[in-house]
Amino acid sequence: MLGPVILAASRSDKMRRFISAAPGTKQVVDRFIAGETVDQVVRVVEDAADKGLEVTLDVVGEDITTPEQAAAARDAYLELVDRLKDLGLGTRAEMSVKLSMFGQSLDGGHELALANVRPVVEAAAAIGTTVTLDAEDHTTLDSMFAIHEELRKDFPQTGCVIQAYLFRTEVDARRLAAAGSRVRIVKGAYKEPASVAYQDKAEIDKAYVRILKTLMEGEGYPMIGSHDPRLIAISQELARKAGRKLDEYEFQMLYGIRSDEHVRLAAEGHRMRVYTAYGTDWYGYFMRRLAEKPANLLFFGRSILTKG
Known about the structure:
It contains 13 helices and eight strands. The protein is an alpha/beta fold. An eight-stranded parallel β-barrel has the order 1-2-3-4-5-6-7-8, surrounded by seven helices.
C-alpha cells in the first residue's frame, strides 16, 4: 500500500524539498529523466533512432498556477519541435502533453489549455509528427476528451490516453476505437477513489485486457503502454487474433525501465516507442514512477543509503 502514500507525498512541498536535497536523488532521477534541456534530450532521440526505436517526448512540469507559466510550457514544446525539425527527427519523435501544463486547472482553463496546445499540435503536424494528450486524474478527463475531439477536426492524428483502472474507460474505449484514432492504454498512476477506480491490481489487469481487446478489434491504432511481460504477451496474441500487422499497433515503455525489452521488441519487428521525459520540474513525474513499482522505491532507498 505504499503507492497511495507516495502519491500523497508528490503533492507535498515539504517532501519535495526533502527529496530534492537527498544525496542519492540525482542518480535515481537520471534513470527516469532524460535530461533537463532540449540539447540533452535530442541526443537521446538520436540514440533511440539508431537502435530502431521511436520516442514520445514529455516536457515535465504540472504545477502551473498562472497563465504565464502555461504559455511558457507551450513555448517549451514549440522549442522542442523546432529542434526536431532542424535535426530531421520529426518522424522518429512525437510529443506527449499534459493539459494541466497548458493551464487546464486555471480559471477558464479548458479554453486556455485548448488555445495553448493547438499551436503545438499544428507545429508538430508541420514536421510530420503528432501529439498525444496524456490522461491525468479523473476530474480532468471530460475536458481532455473534449479538447482531443476538437483538435482532431483539423489534426486527426492527435492521440489520447485512457487508464484501465477507471470504471468509465471501457465505455470511452468503445467510443475511441474508431478509424483514424490513436489511443494509448495504460493502467493509471494517479490516486483515485474507490468510487471511480478499481483498487485491486488483479481487477485492473483484467480491465486492461478487456479494454485492449476492444481497441484491437476496433479500427483505430492501439498504443500499449505497459512493462508487464504478461500483458505484452497478451497484447501480441490479441493483435494476432484481430488480424493486425506489426505496424498497426505499437508498444510504449518508459525511458529507463526494461531498456533491453525495448530493443528486443524492436528487433522482432514491433513498433516500440520510448516515453521520454525531460526538464527541470521533475518531482511529480518522478514520484509517480516510484509509486508505480516498489522496485523503483527500493532502488531509490539504496541510492540514498550508499550516497549518504
